[in-house]
Amino acid sequence: MNFPDTLFSPPLLWAATGLMLLLLSWAAWRVPWRTLPHGAVSAWSAACVLLAMMWLVKAGLQPGLSFHLLGAVIFTLLMGPALALLALALVLLLQVVAGQLDWLAVGLNFCVTLLPAVAVTTLALRLAQRYLPAHLFVYVFVNAFLAGGLSLIVAAASGMALLWLLGVYDGPYLLDNALPFYFLLSWSEAFTSGLVLSIMVVYRPQWVSSFDDARYLAR
User: Fold this and answer.
1) pTM of whole model > 0.85?
2) pLDDT (tens digit per residue) in 168-207
3) Own/partner pairs for 6-13, CB < 8 Å, 24+ apart?
4) Taking each helix axis from N to C terminus, what angle separates 115-131 and 147-165, rounded to the nearest 10 degrees?
């Protein structure tokens, strides 16, 4: 996470940027802009600023190996995958403005870490809705807590795989020095996601686009 552009070749960086722009164009087309609830939009905008500030609190071993919460599960469950991709891209741009990220590396960070996290969250939600009981505990524990931890592990594994395949770091170094920290951080991601979604579905369920009272509370 937080890959600097000095570690990668310009063709790879530009290719990732192009892919990001294509995905964001698709996401912008998928978002039902006219039907978005105004109160939720204001809260989601505040969440983008808050997450950008949280990303400033991070630690790192080497360039390209930094540790901070992602928040991708919270954004995906609150906004839906399409709007979550747009919001997370905005958070990356705020990191550029704050001088914490190279602008040419925005696309690579988006495609390698944030996109897999949103995909894992969306897949977990779809599988839970299809195969698990429609219960509030299932939503919070599976879709928020477990998916939160898993999304960070998948994002970290994707980033480490890229660093290993390109020869930036050796595989044993990544497994011994980076993976244990990401595993520990995944518990923080899981706890934070579960806590935030639990509060939201109790006090502001109308802001959680993936939560339906009729589905989870009818019985």
Assistant:
1) yes
2) 889 888 888 888 889 998 999 999 999 999 999 989 888 8
3) 6/63, 6/102, 7/63, 7/64, 7/163, 7/166, 7/168, 8/105, 8/108, 8/166, 10/104, 12/108, 12/166, 13/104, 13/105, 13/107, 13/108
4) 140
